[in-house]
């Protein structure tokens, strides 16, 4: 049985993040908390960000949703940890462009999140993939 | 009933999706349209388009005749006593909101109660939440049995002298539960409450006789019964509609207008402010012709057989959890092991099978089921046992794929 089409979307690294999420949990103490959901499908995420001196010191998430939204949250937190706020926002922009299937004009390293590029071929799932990134943007912009 | 011949009347079904023949199992969201409906709308725009109720010219008369002819067709379809009781709306949501704005706000007092169930679609919950907030009335819920049905004893004990409105789905869009409307109407009326039926999943699939059901309001949408989007119906008993104020004001719905005051047209037009949904109503009339040619009894019979078949087949899938009662309308809501329903829907789509995934506009029901989302396959007159087999095959492949990548 060939699942070529599905394998474009559900790469091994994505399923690994879904099964073994990184940075799942809450940050105790002084952290930014952002709740965001996808009202059309019920995916929801709570993101905790610890930002100090313009840098993302720590990022954790909890929530419920499909493999794409949850793996994306795991990958996103991994990608932005240790980055400056400006870098994190740039990565989010880069990620959104990747979702739209656009030619990327920067060579930012999104780490494992790069594996989600196949989502661009599944328009109905783009919102799943961008949920965590949008939550991160909201948290940083409202700080 | 010749399903093969029926399928040929739906041009959209004859296509491949992701390299597989389309298997459309999302008719509860919206049904497909037969060629006769598509052509009726096209012909109206091609030959007869004009505004209704005002033009002296010939096209205006043709458009008016077709629009009002559609109303008479709907009246017969649901056996309303008069066309005065048939109001065209944008759909079920607008129909229910019309009652919640007009009837509910005028009649509810702080000590009153509105009674609904947790199985309702958001469109039969939120209008009542808002009406309760506006009037100080209380919104109460009839609890569900474990199998997702409503017990008439519960209805009896919850309908009290305080109950002014009971609102319930004819058929649940998630559980497939078919509610005992006639019995609920008797209970509601015994205490002086009015009964509104959300018929979005009822009218497309079974013969509805509003006089026999004795409901006070019946709301439904055209697009779930082979008609275009943007047209729906609010049936209401004449004596209630007469007392109700319009919700939208403007052209079309007035009798006399002076500088400070105006009077309304008679029923049903006082509820149809603005240029009406003429093409939609004409499309709905063509859809009713189509459905009645097939026969509503035949459609229900076909769907009941499909419902039994799909339940028999799907219940054999390992790790599947099916929600709702044994006896149901032709839809099945389920979860497949630990695979998230969005992932199930994406996988099925890759095999050309269209199902819905998510909360189905029924978040309180999802909470009752203790899930965040589910997948749903829903069937209509053009679906066959072969579609069920393709769904089975798709589900087994989906299990294999996610079993393999996990």
UniProtKB/TrEMBL annotation, chain A:
Q: Which InterPro entries match?
A: NIF_FeS_clus_asmbl_NifU_N (IPR002871)
A GO MF annotation of the entry reads: iron ion binding
Superkingdom of the organism of origin = Bacteria
Q: Which residues form the NIF system FeS cluster assembly NifU N-terminal domain?
A: 10-128
| One Pfam short name | NifU_N
A single Gene Ontology biological process assigned to it is:
iron-sulfur cluster assembly
Q: Which residues form the signal peptide?
A: none
- Similarity comment: family membership: Belongs to the NifU family.
User: Which named protein is this?
Assistant: Iron-sulfur cluster assembly scaffold protein NifU
Species in which this protein is naturally found: Ornithinibacillus bavariensis
TrEMBL record, chain B:
Gene Ontology annotations of biological process type: cysteine metabolic process
Q: Which residues form the Aminotransferase class V domain?
A: 23-391
Source organism, top-level taxon: Bacteria
Instruction: Tell me the GO molecular function terms.
Output: cysteine desulfurase activity; pyridoxal phosphate binding
InterPro entries recorded: Aminotrans_V_dom (IPR000192), Aminotrans_V_PyrdxlP_BS (IPR020578), Cys_dSase_SufS (IPR010970), Cysteine_dSase (IPR016454), PyrdxlP-dep_Trfase (IPR015424), PyrdxlP-dep_Trfase_major (IPR015421), PyrdxlP-dep_Trfase_small (IPR015422)
Top enzyme class of this protein? transferase
In short, the EC number is 2.8.1.7
Q: What is this protein called?
A: Cysteine desulfurase
PANTHER family, from UniProt? CYSTEINE DESULFURASE, CYSTEINE DESULFURASE 1, CHLOROPLASTIC
Q: Which reaction does it catalyse?
A: (sulfur carrier)-H + L-cysteine = (sulfur carrier)-SH + L-alanine
Role this protein plays: Catalyzes the removal of elemental sulfur and selenium atoms from L-cysteine, L-cystine, L-selenocysteine, and L-selenocystine to produce L-alanine.
PROSITE patterns, alphabetized: AA_TRANSFER_CLASS_5
Supply the CDD domains for this chain.
SufS_like
NCBIfam families according to UniProt? sufS
Known cofactor(s): pyridoxal 5'-phosphate
Regarding protein family, the annotation reads: Belongs to the class-V pyridoxal-phosphate-dependent aminotransferase family. Csd subfamily.
| Keywords assigned | Pyridoxal phosphate, Transferase
